[in-house]
Amino acid sequence: MVRPTLPLDKSNFTLDTSGVAGVFGGDEAVSAMATVHVYENRRWFGWYNSPGSYQIAKRYGLLARSRFFDGFFPGVHTDPATLFELDGWKGPKFRAAHSGTIIEETGHLGALFMKECAAREGKVVEGRKTQAVGVTIAELNHIPEPQMYPRRINTYSPAFASIPIAVSIGTCVACGVFEDWYSFSLILLGIFTGGIACLVIGSGKFVFTHPDPAKGSPPGDGILSSDKEIVLLKGAEGAVNSITRGRFSLNFDSEPEYRNIGWCSVLLTIQFIAQLLLIPQGSLFGQIMFVTSLGVSYLYNSWLSSLDKEKIQRDILLDSVLEKPVLTKYSLGTRTTMVIFVLLVLHPEDPTKILNELLPNDTKVWMQWKVTIVRRLLNKEKLEFVDVDWELDGFSQQERSLLGTLYGDAQAAYGGYAQYAASK
User: Fold this and answer.
1) Angle at which helices 53-60 and 26-33 cross, to 10°
2) pLDDT at 39
3) What is the Cα–Cα distance from 127 to 5, expressed in whole angstroms?
4) Which helix (DSSP H) or strand (DSSP E) does residue 354 occupy?
5) 3-state secondary structure of 392
6) Under a CB-based contact definition with an 8 Å cutoff, are residues 84 and 291 in contact?
């Protein structure tokens, strides 16, 4: 059989691919690998010659725990969920309306839920405006199992993955046809290690867990609070603690040592060294094929990296774990209006505690206002006020004016609550 004429065989041009093999596309490759657990079937489509193998090995090799792997991948060990950015965020403070439980700092899911609510547009409540505060009422009607495997996002299209796979296989075959065995072998090595890495690293089971509340626990209603956003969680204790104390995690069969991930990272390191040293031995045509496969894979990794992983996690939390809770958001013009609105929605047995925590002001005017508000809330009276309510003896004209303003805020909150109650 006659050997085909090698394209560019007479060219004096040389292509230095060592830099491409070494550092090109590393961040994008690591970020793309982080999507392997949140997209359905993503782990089966890693069979392409991807750049950044050494960066992937360095990052995920930190999971492996033994002296041998510590020598290859030195650094601080962490758990898989944190490494894949499925855990680790600090969430907002939570205060239970009925039990009095206070969690100073919720976790990753609390932060995700707060961001989901903050991103929504709220219905504007009429009234005085200083600094608007968003209040989202989350009606949690589903109690997740204490441990479950959430449905992952299935919008990921294998058709996109087929592009780098086809290009990698095509360039590998082209190198074989023209008998450039260096380039052929190194592209094939990249396909093999990429596929194995995706299978092994993606073998972790995506799990949601939360505490199973004691029987007879009171409703878990409470407040997630930040500076500009308030979320009112309404539902059973098991539903509420899914947000305040639940977490995403990854379970691997090889834990706690994760040896399979360690050996996979070693294989990726070998790929990096082999491509760094041997690709210059290939022909110019083979080097071009090699760079082409990397370039297309880099574009695919960049596309995966551009996807909003935070939004993906929020969708999994709301749709799969909480099964689409009803979220209703209002925008209130002042913090005073917001606090009264919160008390009206939650109906706490002792509104004084929440009122004093959210509004710690303790001057004579504020104390008079608080006494009136608490009395009317406990007696289930309307929060509608007239001049006689603030034209009181023992108060200066300036104090009466402030008292009238505060009563106006409370009345605005009552109007907003009436709007909410009518929509149910």
Assistant:
1) 50
2) 86
3) 82
4) helix 351-358
5) coil
6) no
Enter the tokens of residue 210.
Answer: 């939360």
How far is the C-alpha of 214 from the C-alpha of 238, rounded, in Å? 9
Preceding omega of 164 cis (within 30 degrees of 0): no
User: What is the predicted pLDDT for the residue at 1?
Assistant: 45
Where do we find the tokens 């950044």?
52
Please determine, for residue 3, whether its predicted confidence score (pLDDT) is greater than 80. Answer: no
Residue 239: burial class (beta carbons within 10 Å; 0-12, 13-18, 19+) = buried
Q: Give residue-wise pLDDT tens across range 265-302.
A: 999 999 999 988 888 888 888 889 999 999 999 999 99
Amino acid at 194: G
Residue type present at position 324: K
pLDDT for the residue numbered 20? 56
Name 233's bridge partners. 138, 222
Tell me the three state secondary structure of residue 140.
strand
Instruction: Output the six-digit token pair for 197.
Output: 């890495």
Q: Identify residue 52 by its one-letter amino acid code.
A: G
Question: What is the 3-state secondary structure of 60-122?
Answer: HHHHCCCHHHHHHCCCCCCCHHHHCCCCCCCCCEEEECCCCCEECCCCHHHHHHHHHHHCCCC
Kindly give, in sequence order, each residue whose CB lies less than 8 Å from that of residue 27, ignoring residues fewer than 6 positions away.
52, 55, 305
Closest by alpha carbon to 59, among 80, 42, 38? Answer: 80
Q: Specify the 3-state DSSP secondary structure of 123.
A: strand
DSSP secondary structure code for residue 153 in this structure: B
Q: Read off the pLDDT band of 24 (50, 70, 90).
A: low
Report the length, in residues, of the chain: 424
Q: pLDDT digits over 188-202, tens only?
A: 999 999 999 999 999
Q: Which residues contact 140 (CB under 8 A, 6 or more apart)?
A: 233, 234, 235, 236, 239, 240, 242, 243, 322, 325
Within 13 Å, how many C-alpha atoms sit on residue 266's CB side? 12
pTM as predicted: 0.89
Q: What's residue 156's pLDDT?
A: 62
CB 265 within 8 A of CB 180: no
The pLDDT of 376-382, averaged and rounded, is: 93
Residue 421 CB contacts under 8 Å (≥ 6 apart), including other chains: none
Residues 6+ apart with CB under 8 A from 190: 48, 49, 50, 53, 168, 271, 275, 293
Q: Is the pLDDT of residue 17 over 70?
A: no
